[in-house]
Amino acid sequence: MTANSNTPDPSTRQPDWPAPAVAWYAVGVLFLAYTVSIADRFILSLLIEPIKQDLNLSDTKVSLLHGFAFAIFFSVMGIPIARLADRFSRRMIIAAGVTVWSLMTAACGIANGYWQLFAARVGVGVGEAALSPPAYSMVADLFPPQKLGRALSFYTTGAYIGAGMVFIIGGMVLQAAMSTPEITLPVVGTIRSWQAAFFIVGVPGLAVALLMFTVPEPVRRFQANAAFSGDVQDPIPLRQVNEYMRQRWRVYGAHIFGFSFLAVIFNAIVAWTPAYLTRSFDLSIGQTGPAVGVLVLVFATAGIIVGGWLADRLVIRGYTDGAMRVGVIAGLGCIPFALLSLTVTSVTGILAMYGPLLFFSSFGFGAAAAALQQATPNRLRALVSAIYLFILNLIALGLGPTITASITDFVFRDDLAVGRSIACVAIVSGILSAFILGRGLKHFRAQVAAQAAN
């Protein structure tokens, strides 16, 4: 062995990490982008009743606007955009995505029919697919490993803060806007008040797109993994990733489908609670929006923080499957509150049940990301994460709102039964989530041990 054998090769030396102020500024802008994306995604929940009335739609048709139209392209586009983010400027991809989804949200405001609105929602999904894959990659290149968890947690809370704020602020603004049936806007002309709401929410996103140009593109960092050969910068073929996951289907199947059913509960509640409160208790948008917003802001945000903390504590105490155990707890925790929601008959009672439901349906998602990293080699993590998000979003966004609406339309055949539909979806999904994740615990432990041995 030569005397200088431990000296790093200059060609492989990693660059210094960005200054903390630069890194946190970038995460702050990404947080704003995530907040705006969630606001644009969920604004439809507040507008279900006026859209149904004006366009003469069933709950199922509205749910397809909320879920399927958005989710199918949001999910499908995630993987190719993740590939682009590995090769091209991530901040430019995000800026383009923010611009697209903001314009398409505004385009919902000029839709005069169901299929025009459907097409605009597809566009929102395509634009939003350009956010998280490049954002995760950027954040990983901005922070050293010991600070990455905090940075990603801050970014992730944008989802819950965005959802909460769109209901709180959006509900009050929309109540004022809807005090007149029609509104005249420059260039656009005269439109219905619910159409104006899409402009109010969509246009501010263009300012966030401009802010992305102030974020520096971080230097890319690569890590080799002994399980794979070749230049560490070469993208791994998707078929190789699929084969890796197929061979470990008991691990990845349990993780992906277990957490997906947990996400179904969150999306069913957020999509249909405003309509439930309006129909059953005759509340206005100005009342339902803030009520639901506070629940999401407080309980969902607390859920993801406490769940992540518990997962870390379990791992520290020697439970290598701690992140998956948190998912089991989350699924089981949803069941009693969903059952109890069937027995209450007041607004206060419903909100008292839905708060814990939002807490537990969000409880597992800090842990879900951690579990995926534990089980997966470094060089496969980006694509495995993209596949996970692809399936999760198809199930949670595509099926959650639609299954709830279908139960209302075809099982109960009563618009006032939407609360019972939410409860049914939460009970069944909670059971499935806990069962699937529980079945995967021993396989997950074995996979983590195998990873540690490599």
UniProtKB/TrEMBL annotation:
Locations listed in the record: Membrane
Keyword Ion transport on entry: no
PROSITE patterns the record matches: MFS (PS50850)
Record flagged with keyword Membrane: yes
Pfam families: MFS_1 (PF07690)
Membrane topology per record: Multi-pass membrane protein
Organism whose genome encodes this protein: Elongatibacter sediminis
GO molecular function, one term: transmembrane transporter activity
Keyword line: Membrane, Transmembrane, Transmembrane helix, Transport
Membrane-spanning parts: 21-44, 64-85, 92-112, 118-140, 152-174, 194-215, 249-272, 292-311, 323-344, 350-371, 383-405, 417-437
Major site of localization recorded for this protein: membrane
Lineage: Bacteria, Pseudomonadati, Pseudomonadota, Gammaproteobacteria, Chromatiales
The protein's name: MFS transporter
